[in-house]
UniProtKB/TrEMBL annotation:
<dbReference type="InterPro" id="IPR029063">
    <property type="entry name" value="SAM-dependent_MTases_sf"/>
</dbReference>
<keyword id="KW-0489">Methyltransferase</keyword>
<keyword id="KW-0808">Transferase</keyword>
<dbReference type="GO" id="GO:0003723">
    <property type="term" value="F:RNA binding"/>
</dbReference>
<dbReference type="Pfam" id="PF01189">
    <property type="entry name" value="Methyltr_RsmB-F"/>
</dbReference>
<keyword id="KW-0949">S-adenosyl-L-methionine</keyword>
<dbReference type="InterPro" id="IPR049560">
    <property type="entry name" value="MeTrfase_RsmB-F_NOP2_cat"/>
</dbReference>
<dbReference type="InterPro" id="IPR023267">
    <property type="entry name" value="RCMT"/>
</dbReference>
<protein>
    <submittedName>
        <fullName>RsmB/NOP family class I SAM-dependent RNA methyltransferase</fullName>
    </submittedName>
</protein>
<feature type="active site" description="Nucleophile">
    <location>
        <position position="233"/>
    </location>
</feature>
<feature type="binding site">
    <location>
        <position position="135"/>
    </location>
    <ligand>
        <name>S-adenosyl-L-methionine</name>
    </ligand>
</feature>
<dbReference type="InterPro" id="IPR001678">
    <property type="entry name" value="MeTrfase_RsmB-F_NOP2_dom"/>
</dbReference>
<feature type="binding site">
    <location>
        <position position="180"/>
    </location>
    <ligand>
        <name>S-adenosyl-L-methionine</name>
    </ligand>
</feature>
<keyword id="KW-0694">RNA-binding</keyword>
<dbReference type="GO" id="GO:0001510">
    <property type="term" value="P:RNA methylation"/>
</dbReference>
<dbReference type="GO" id="GO:0008173">
    <property type="term" value="F:RNA methyltransferase activity"/>
</dbReference>
<comment type="similarity">
    <text>Belongs to the class I-like SAM-binding methyltransferase superfamily. RsmB/NOP family.</text>
</comment>
Length: 319
């Protein structure tokens, strides 16, 4: 059996008090197992489903299916036709907090959008008047634009700027801001992918500092009574619970929202209502998610789309 690194052992002890859970967590990263594929229906489901599906979880929306192991949805003709989007079920868990947001929703802004799964989930769940997807890394734009076009997400626009630009140009404008934060990607190991140095303190601290900067800029966009969701696909508390604690200390007008249907996944590392799954839960490689609401009263700022036209990288689809 491959020996876990000292850094992984240390992390497992921080995450779990039970020796059994520590060992299961370590085993899930050293000996990765396959996870059930999932699809998000972008158009109406066909009368006869083309895949065999698992029994849905209590928090799973009706437009998502978790499929049996071995199904290959990405190779089905309906995929290319834009009927559904393939995603890790961990992403469904992280985005499930959005189901508690009341409709109607005006503007949804996804700050770190590529490849597009959380954007498409928000569009399908909330049917906003406008979805803006930002991706600061140029080489990731092509995949994002392709997925949004294929799935016929509309009305929607793609932008390519640092989060600080939007904090200045779009304050108090968005009913929902999604921050699927760049992270050390430790859950990649549970999918048999590589994440070099993902447990090293230097990498974790660098990532946490970047996350704090992004969430702080993103908070500026949230309209009074609007929502901010923060999520990662990593395990380190520095990138998850500790970012939330820092955020609430700097932005006391935000309060975390309890999501009752995710209660069993409450993080044991904080009293803040935030939620985790781990690979040994066998739902996906792992995710952290938390929903905040801006408690300020008042009216949000309207966005002058024409005035912001210089920021558009690509107008994808517009009704």
């Amino acid at each position: 059996m491959e020996k876990p690194s000292n850094l992984l052992l240390k992390l497992s002890r921080r995450l779990f008090t039970s020796l059994e859970q520590q060992q299961k967590f370590i085993d899930s990263l050293i000996h990765p197992q396959s996870f059930n594929p999932a699809i998000l229906w972008c158009q109406n489901k066909p009368d006869i489903l083309p895949f065999t599906v698992e029994t849905p979880t209590k928090w799973q929306p009706d437009f998502v299916e978790r499929l049996l192991l071995g199904e290959k949805p990405g190779k089905h003709p309906l995929h290319e036709q834009g009927y559904f989007y393939c995603l890790d079920f961990s992403s469904v868990f992280a985005a499930a907090v959005l189901l508690t947001i009341p409709r109607p929703v005006g503007l949804v802004f996804d700050m770190c959008a590529s490849p597009g799964g959380k954007s498409i989930f928000a569009w399908r769940a909330l049917q906003p008047q406008l979805l803006i997807c930002n991706e600061v890394i140029g080489k990731r734009l092509g995949m994002l634009i392709s997925n949004l076009k294929r799935c016929q997400v509309s009305p929607c626009a793609v932008v390519n700027r640092d989060s600080s630009i939007f904090a200045e140009t779009m304050p108090l404008s968005s009913d929902l801001v999604i921050v699927d934060a760049p992270c050390t990607g430790q859950s990649l190991l549970a999918k048999a992918e590589k994440a070099p140095g993902c447990f090293h303190p230097t990498a974790i601290n660098r990532s946490a500092n970047r996350q704090k900067r992004i969430i702080a800029n993103s908070a500026q966009l949230v309209a009074p009574q609007g929502y901010l969701v923060y999520m990662t696909c990593t395990y380190s508390p520095e990138e998850n619970e500790e970012v939330c604690e820092w955020f609430l200390s700097k932005f006391p007008q935000f309060q975390p929202i309890q999501v009752n249907y995710l209660h069993q996944y409450q993080s044991k590392l904080t009293d803040i209502p935030c939620y985790r799954i781990f690979p040994q839960d066998e739902l996906g490689a792992g995710a952290f998610t938390v929903l905040f609401q801006n408690t300020q009263e008042g009216k949000g700022q309207d966005v002058d789309v024409n005035a912001l036209s210089g920021l558009w990288m690509n107008k994808v689809l517009q009704k």
